[in-house]
Structure prediction request, 337 residues.
Amino acid sequence: MAKIYYDSDADLNVLKGKTIVFFGFGNQGAAQAQNLRDSGIPNEKIIIANREDNYAVDAKSKGFTVWHDFAKAAEVADVIFLLIPDQVQPRVFNAITSKLKDTAAIVVASGYNVFFKLLNFRPTQDVTMVAPRMIGSSVRSLYEKGKGFPCFVSVEQDGTGNGLAVALALSRAIGATKTGAIASSVREETAMDLFAEQGLWPNIIMLFREAYSVLKEAGCSDEALVYEMWMSKEPAEIFEAAAEEGFIKQLKHHSSVSQYGQLNGALKLDGTAIRAHFKEILYNQVLNGKFQKEFTAIEDALELQGDANPLNQLYKKSEESELGQGEKRVRARLGLS
Prediction:
């Protein structure tokens, strides 16, 4: 079983006098920087490194010092939170890595670039992961309510011998150890994250798409289908209940017909084929680096406009499905498009 760290395991004094630099002030950066400050880290010891954009304006409006020169910020950093998008981290970080102190602690919230060895560290530096399993707005709002949130923590390189103490102090400062930060690794975080994105959710999208087509063929209207399947927000309520009460136990809120149909139907399904498919995704696409190489090859194209952007191509193709077209008609009719 994984070790869980609580407030009592973390000493905020470890951060005393340290200059903490955030690369990026987006969803997570904004939340974590504010939580650190509210936990007693002096405002003057927090620097936001961000290009001149709306995020920088937001950081300034919240009272933070903002530097647009990433290399200059790197020079003064004792701790650096790398919270810019995964696809730009290697380009930005590797350009300034020579400026970092030999004893700097680098903190990531996603294991991707560390696991695939796309970032250049010196052996004397600490490389840690502090990864909230919650969107930034919730990291902030839960902290303000005095509540914790799920978070993964790990030390991937303990260059100073103090990596775990720093990682736990940072976890406590952002509010993660109030309910318990879970010992993990960049391998575990990356495996689960990419597997969900490439194995679990694609199959869920496919199931909804094919179910829509079968029911449409049986005479159901677009309007009835989109509301029955997702626009009523029933799936969201089910997942919320699953998080609060348990994945299986939440079924008790459903009718007896629903409970029997779901439980009996799920137990009758043979998971052999999907299990094999999931293993193929995990071992021969995610963990072996195949997807990483494929994604790296198209990274620059993600900045392009129109059909030259591969993401736009995928959206266009997906929206051509019967489900996509049906929803488009319903939303247009309701004035929601």
In short: Residues 227 and 264 are 25 Å apart (CA to CA). The two ends are 47 Å apart (CA to CA). The longest strand covers residues 151-158.
